[in-house]
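BUG: 3D viewer hangs when loading the predicted structure for this chain

Environment: internal workstation, default settings.
Expected: structure renders.
Actual: progress bar stalls at 90%.

Input used:
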Amino acid sequence: MADNNKQSEVETTRSDAGIGTFLKGNGKGTFVLVPNLQSGFFADKDVRNIAALNTKGSKFILVANNDGYHNLFKLNQDIE
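Structure tokens produced before the viewer hung:
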């Protein structure tokens, strides 16, 4: 999961944003939070879209950010 970075005027701090979250599913509708330091997933920009990409032998998460670089995360089999 990823959310957006709500920009505001200089005097006001962010009010609704996050750094992304990886929830590991068990295939039965239950999910466990994997901490960001363990998963390596940090989506702390102005996220507009997120997509799973599957290639031969690897899986990736593409995070599209508004007005900036996109992020590409390779899924580690140990966490997956």
